[in-house]
Structures are given as C-alpha cells and as structure tokens.
Amino acid sequence: MESNIVNYLNGKFDPIVLIKTDEKPDNIKGPKPGSGGCVMSFVARCIAKRKPFVFGRDNATCGGIWAGFGWGTGFATPDDKEFQATFLSCGVDSATDRNEYLKKLEGRPKHVKDMFSEGERIYTDFETAYNHISSRPIYDSEDYVVFKPLEDIEDGDIPDSVIFTVNAFELMLLLQLDGSHRYESNIVCVPQSSACQLIGCFTFQQAEEDNPHMLLGPVDLAARRHMKHFIPNEYVILVMPWKLFLKLEEISHNSLFEAHLFREFAR
Description:
By secondary structure, this protein is α+β, with helices and mostly antiparallel strands. Helix content is 40%, strand content 13%. The protein has helices spanning 4-9, 39-49, 63-68, 78-88, 98-104, 110-118, 126-134, 168-179, 195-199, 201-207, 221-227, 242-251, 260-266; strands spanning 16-21, 53-56, 144-149, 161-166, 188-189, 214-217, 236-241. The protein has a 7-stranded mixed sheet with strand order 2-3-1-4-7-6-5. Helix 2 (39-49) crosses helix 11. The longest helix has 12 residues, at 168-179. The radius of gyration is 19 Å and the shape is globular. The mean pLDDT is 94.
C-alpha cells in the first residue's frame, strides 16, 4: 500500500501494521515456541529493517503480552495478578506480604531477583498498580498477530493497528492532521501500560469507538530497552486503529501538507 501521509512525512521510519489472525502465515517467520521474549525487540526490528514476523500464543512468555494481544488477562490465578502489581510498583516495598513475595523470588538468577525486589516503579504503590491492571481492556480472540511494513499490505489484509515511529516534528504534523477533522480539541491517549498493550489492546479498544483517537508511547522503559538497538530514544510510537488511519489518509490530500508553510519545511 502506498500512503500519502508517509510520502509527505518522508521520515526515517515508515509505519508498520499489526494484524490479528487465526491463521499462522506460512511465509512469515516468528520466534520458536516458548522463546518469544519481549515482543518489542521484534517490533523494533520490523520497524527498522522492514522484516515481517508473526507472534502467537505459543511464543508468549510474558503475562503482559497475553493482555496486550487479546489472549485473555495473562493471569492464571489471583496470586499471579497480585505478584505483577507488586512488581510493577515498588517490589518488596509494595508487597502486601513481604515474606511471601521474597519466597517467590528464591532460586531466580541474581539480576532477576534484584529487578523484582526493586520493582519497575511504573506505579507509585500496590493499590494503584492493581487497579490499573484490573482496568486493562481484555479480549480473547485470534491466536496470532502479524507485524508487517505498511507497504507490504496485501489485498484482504485489514490491520488492527497502524504504528508510526516519529520524531518531535513528525509527531506535531500528525497531531495537527488528526486535529484538523475534529470539532473538539484533539485528544491523544497515553496508556500507563506496557508497549505491547499500547499497540495492542488499548488500540483495539479505540477501534470500537465511533470517534477513535491516537495513542502515544511507550512510557514503558523495559520495552524501550529492548528497542533501543534499532530505534533511538528520541523517537516515539504513535498508534491508531485502521479506520482512523484511513480517515487521515483521506483528509491528507487537502491538509497542512498542501499548505505553503509545510512546503517551506519540506525543502
């Protein structure tokens, strides 16, 4: 697919798409079962190297991915949910049962034990973390997600998320474009979540709205750590449902991109 927006932006990184499917493509590779790791390292490679990949339930080794890609909550038991809320807040300092939390860390490698003891500190306390992860949009549908460059979309493909990777100037252009068709001030969602949930379930949720919005991130430093080999830290991800992307494509032909001010910057 050729995109008018992409041609105007002419950025370092072109968009990629996420497509949910029950059929695993034969011509697209993915991690071996049980060895997925953080999916954002694969997403970053797709963005930078333009190589598609497929990720499935059999690759999901992180509970956050299950919620992110619409494979249920990611929690097998209530204890698992409490453990994640403790980790995402202040670790041992947030634990409702300090000794029980430390017991679950026994036998783990030192760097893992240290990480879980300190916590990721995405949330200020256990209660806040627990309430946030309880309010995630939850789906349980297709078994696979395919990531591919926007230019590789084929007939019949209907993406669920369109993922832009932009610098500050490109972000401003897309924000202005998105605001140009709205009666109210533009709203951009910044989920306090993992990056896979940003591009997944939170975008799926916006797709259900009559007037969907774009999402910005990731605020997830763990994901950025996995992405930084391919994506410089000064870049952000701007995600939108497919139907919003098509709307912006339509209006881009009579937009700021056609104005003399933009032509001055584009020289």
